[in-house]
Amino acid sequence: MTGPTPGTRPEPDAQEPVGFGPPPAPFGPDQGPRPRPRSRSAGAVAAAVAAVVTALLLIGGGAYGLTVRAGVGVPGPPAAGPSGSPSVDQGDGKGPGGTPAAYDPNAGIRPGEARVWLRDNQAEVAGSGTSQYGPWRVGATVVAAISNGLTAYAVADGQEKWKLPLQTPLCGVPPAPSATGVLVVAVKETASDTSRCTHLQQIDLTTGKAGWKVPVPRENEHDTSVEFELAISGDTVAVARPAVMSGFSVTDGRKLFGTSKTNGCYPSAFAGGSRLIGIRHCPDPNDTRASGQAMVEELDPATGSARWSHKYDPDWTVGRVLSMDPLVIAAHHKDKKTWNIKAFAADGTVRSQTNPGFGVSGRCNGFGNASGFQECYAAAADADTLYLGAGKPGTSLGIDDTNQVVAVDLNTGKERWRTAEQPKGRTMWPLAVEGGRVVVYVSPGSGGGEAGAVVSLAAADGAAQPVLQSPAAAAGAQGVFYPHGLRTAWADGRLFLLNGRVYSPEPRKASRAILSFGK
After folding, report:
1. Dihedral over Cα of 420, 425, 426, 428: its sign
2. Pick from 56, 256, 411, 461: CA 20 to 30 A from residue 444's CA?
3. Selected residue with higher pLDDT from 373 and 49
4. SS3 helix, strand, coil % of the chain, rounded to 5?
5. Could you give the percent of the chain with pLDDT greater than 70?
6. CA 298 to CA 270: how far, in whole Å?
């Protein structure tokens, strides 16, 4: 999937926020008649602001259209943010005279709407751009990283709090820091593009201070790589590279385990968090041309030893870990053009398996992207249900238009409910499950004027409620946070959007880096 260069996509003219329009046809056949939208009391309507967010639900055998208004049930005023310019040009997002800083995403903000802050990349990077990692919220700051350093921004208004330059470029970043806010990254030996990945660097995200730095000892004569796959679980940072793995203490950098013994299955990646999951590839010893088998295992973070392991059928590729607790994994079969979801019990036995009748992004089943096993930012789970950003199956295993949410029962593998499709250009990204409701980011539409919003869906049946609505003027800026590279974080009632790739600042062109709105 390709898109315009970030910062060059025209932003729509500011206009009155509007609803999603008439409900579309129900997803799939024989869904029954669509009941009339629910009505609200006069008091609730009076309390609602004018910005409209429509959640279209498809539940059980019937489709339900529900219109909800931003601000309803959202306690208190939005957090203070950067003040807006009284006179801005909303036509292209660059402001009068072409200065990106003059663009005001809060122009025309209405009572009850969540104030937005936006920061552009200011660092000089390679002409092809650089990957951006995060966002990680730690206390009152949110942190992002690019190849040559890390930057922390104030949660409330986006002001820069600290910056930490790195002596050599990043070559491995875990999906999340430790529970204490400590990140361990991999860095190259030198600044050369061809330099090997050789060291681990500890960084305290609370203070922005660099801690210990240790080399990663080679496990054998073939152990060399320009990139590491990292994951943190407890006090262990696990390091995977071709055919070997090792683990180090997050606290002091001590090596905890290492292996070059494969037992016929070669380590390839980790997923971290509440547990440590290893992913291996097991070649067919009798057929070197065969694809072999994928294996997943839960590891003891302190020793690297396997607590249990599970082999997939031949020719299946483990694509993404969709949830760590409960453990849910997506895999795909390229030749059969199908994919599946497996839920695992605590002892590694298969709890359920399903071949879904819906499509997801390649970022959520691994199709076309073999690294970053926790890169799906459109999945959330509770004890019994997985919630995925999804859409109609496409011509390939990875689709672009994930404009609905599907709930999958982890005990049976069957669909419990799904929302109806949102209008063209509006994607839905489950972020978290909180208080029996699924928090979902709804991206701006392609028709102009529809800014991003956060809604919540009842876990039991998908009934929708509004949570946050950003101003209409923010739609253009949010529209260049492209789904194929977007990284998100939801924490304490605030949403953070991070562009997965940024470019050097140029006259009359902004490279949008991070955007946030919330309480």
Report:
1. positive
2. 461
3. 373
4. 5, 40, 55
5. 79
6. 10
